[in-house]
Amino acid sequence: MIQSVVQLRGIAKTYTIGREITVNALRGVDLDVRPGEFVAIMGPSGSGKSTLMNILGCLDVPDSGTYVLAGENVGKLSDDKLAAIRNQHIGFVFQTFNLLPRLNAIENVELPLIYGGDRHDRRARALSALEQVGLGDRVHHRPSELSGGQQQRVAIARALLNDPSMILADEPTGNLDSRSSAEILAIFQRLNDLGKTVVMVTHEPDVAAHTKRIVRMRDGVVARDELVSQPRRAEDEIAAGIGAAE
Amino acid sequence: MKLFDSFRSALQSLVVNKLRSALTMLGVIIGVAAVIAMVSVGNGASQSVQNTILSLGSNLVTVTPNFSTDQGLRGAGAQAQNLTLDDMRSIQDQLGTSIVAIEAEQQTGRWQVTAAGQNWNTQVTGVTENYQAVRDWPLEEGDFFSTSDLNVNAQVAVIGSTTATSLFGDGDAVGQTIQLRQAFGGGKDQRARIINFKVIGVLATKGTTFGFSRDDQIVVPITTAQHVLTGQLNRVQQIVIKAASSDTMDETTSDVNNILLQRHKISDPANADFAVTNQNDTLQALSNVTGTFTLLLGAIGGISLLVGGIGIMNIMLVSVNERTREIGIRKAVGARRGDILTQFLIEAIALTGLGGVLGILIGWSITVAVHQIPQAASVPLVITTGTVIIAVSVSVGIGVIFGIYPAMRAARLHPIQALRYE
Question: B-chain residues within 8 Å CB-CB of A57?
Fold first, then answer.
């Protein structure tokens, strides 16, 4: 049996809002993600998918349950250890791109290597990551000089840089038009074809239809977990001139 | 994270907010400039006071008469012996070559002096032959009087340069005769004593000490002063000894004390009828005063530095708040607390360090400018490396002290909250 990239067992997380209201965001989530999978996590707001995303991304720790990421139990690590795990194992892609506005494209892409990894080939690796997402000619542009789709591609290049165990995308197409969305999904599919594990949170069924597996959350638990029999190919849709989310 | 990267990103963010960085730095610049300028003016003033003291001669140990305090007023049984010329000769014999020179002085008061039809009023002092050696005071022309002049109570005089100019103008003073006059008696019985002296030398110009010209005076052999001018035979007002070096001054002081105690037959030093003062003590006392003065000036500068530091903290807090999202992003891609802390701390230190350097330059310019004012020109320019090192390290220290709190706030931010911050 192939070792899972992600193995969640009985993950629970409770938030306290104000003084008295407690929210059971997650109530015992079991989930396995195997290498090379392309998973969409769906669910209505309040279903716990954002909390699950934060825990998967090691931005937050569960109250109970175990989380094994790439063979390492990360459930109870310190802040600094979690930072190192994020740096080595997770590539984030956010809805709002989250690029540093003062840095140009290549400097943004380099960022993970500043906090871990070698210095000497930093530029070269950042450049090749940018070329991989088709932005080899926009290296010195600032985020404000790039379109939304281009900014998201810079973010993907940044996520790729440390060769992470998993790319974690949080509504990556939420702020994009349908054409750009299709391009971004095409990049994810291409990366997945190359063997990258991608986990994507989305609430759009059309976007989720491009993945290989859909996990539906409801009330803090996994409600349905199903494989997509025939994932839509974003590249074909671009070629046919239609947006992915149409 | 490498320190180089921290530096780069810190400088980047300072350059992006140029105006804000400059204004923030201004507080530190003004503070450091104030400290540098004030302390160097203070040091300069203290140097100038010290120079004045040393212009009276260096390494001096001075003996002055003192009333015996054994029984309040000088009582029966006390030797009632003041300082004498013999005391001086005795010290001279006993200390020999362990001291540079020794002299005794007797003030005779102010006299009316006439020569070549000119009239002048000045101080006349009786001194011994080694006066010049003790006071480090060369002659402009002529000779100083010798022991043989003292032995015969010769009526010869050496005059100060101002006195010479006043009496003889540009003419030659050496070889001229001056008349000292002093009125005595009163009413219609008033008479004047007139005593002739021959000028044998003119002292080199020395300048003023505490506002008094030291070049307007006449010195005569002490024996002549005693026998002819005052009639106080064998009494001297002070004995001045020039020690071999600053280090031997304490030793010389105690030697002189012992010799005089023995000569005056006083067993308890507390009852001594003389006082021995060490020039080091005087310098020490004065440097305490000027040191306090400098400290006060420095403290005023320090307050502006403190205000500047608070400005730094304020701006850093605003900056941390503004860049919450950036902190979130950096944490998401793997920045540890220490990385964020270092980044913000370096920003604060870069601000204060650069401000410190600029402050030194401005403070130095102010000091030079102050030096251009005629009234302050005599105050030496003293910017020590110590002052500069202290100013820079204090400003960098202020960066650390006032930067650490904002930096810690940044480092402690939770990544999720930081990422969601709008």
Answer: 332
CB B218 within 8 A of CB B158: yes
Give the chain A residue nearest B413 (alpha carbons): A79
* Bridge partners, B181 (sequence order): B112, B194
Both B97 and B239 in a single domain?
yes
Residue A17: Cβ within 10 Å count = 8
Contact A60, A13 (CB under 8 A): yes
Q: What is the extent of the structural domain holding B361?
A: 3-53+285-420
Q: Which of A30-44, A170-184, B99-113, B380-394 has the lowest mean pLDDT?
A: B380-394
Do A115 and B335 make contact, defined as CB atoms within 8 angstroms? yes
B13, B338, B415 ranked by CB distance to A102: nearest: B13
A 35-64 near B (Cβ less than 8 A):
54, 57, 59-60
- Alpha carbon distance B173, B170 (integer Å): 9
CA A224 to chain centroid, in Å, comes to 20
CA triple B335-B339-B342, angle to 5 deg: 155
For range B367-386, the mean pLDDT: 73
pLDDT at B404 (0 to 100): 92
The structural domain count of chain A equals 1
Sign of CA dihedral A107, A109, A112, A117: negative
Does A87 reside within a domain? yes
Q: Do B127 and B223 reside in the same domain of the chain?
A: yes
Cα–Cα distance for residue pair B5/B9, rounded to 1 Å? 6
Alpha carbon distance B379, B40 (integer Å): 10
**pLDDT tens-place values along chain A, 246 residues long:** 568 899 999 999 998 877 788 888 899 999 999 999 999 999 988 888 889 999 999 999 999 999 999 888 998 888 899 999 999 999 999 999 999 988 899 999 999 988 887 677 888 999 999 999 999 899 999 999 999 999 999 999 999 998 999 999 999 998 899 999 999 999 999 999 999 999 999 989 999 999 999 999 999 999 999 999 899 999 888 888 765 444
User: Which structural domain range is residue A203 located in?
Assistant: 35-61+78-239
- Is B62 contained in some domain? no
Lookup: tokens for B178: 């001056």
**pLDDT (average), residues B369-397:** 75
B303-343 confidence digits (pLDDT tens): 888 888 888 889 889 989 988 999 999 999 999 999 899 88
Is B131 in the same domain as B260? yes
Question: What's the total number of domains in chain B?
Answer: 2
Cβ partners under 8 Å of residue A157, min gap 6:
A105, A109, A126, A129, A130, A132, A133, A135
Structure tokens of B416?
Answer: 């999720």
CA distance B30 to chain A (A): 30
| B291–chain A nearest CA distance, Å | 50
In a domain, B25, yes or no: yes
Q: Domain with A47 in it: what CATH number?
A: 3.40.50.300
Complex prediction ipTM: 0.92
Q: Are strands B139-142 and B191-203 parallel, antiparallel or unpaired?
A: antiparallel
Mark which of B272, B301, B335 sits at the end of a domain.
B272
B222 and B82 belong to one structural domain:
yes
Establish if B277 belongs to a structural domain.
Answer: no
Name the pairing type of β-strands B274-278 and B60-65.
Answer: antiparallel
Could you list the beta-strand ranges (E) of B38-83: 60-65
Report whether A23 contacts A46 (CB < 8 A): no
| Domain end position, chosen among B221, B242, B272 | B272
- In this predicted structure, what is the pLDDT of residue B371? 77
Residue B86 Cα to chain centre, angstroms:
35
Q: Is residue A177 part of a domain?
A: yes
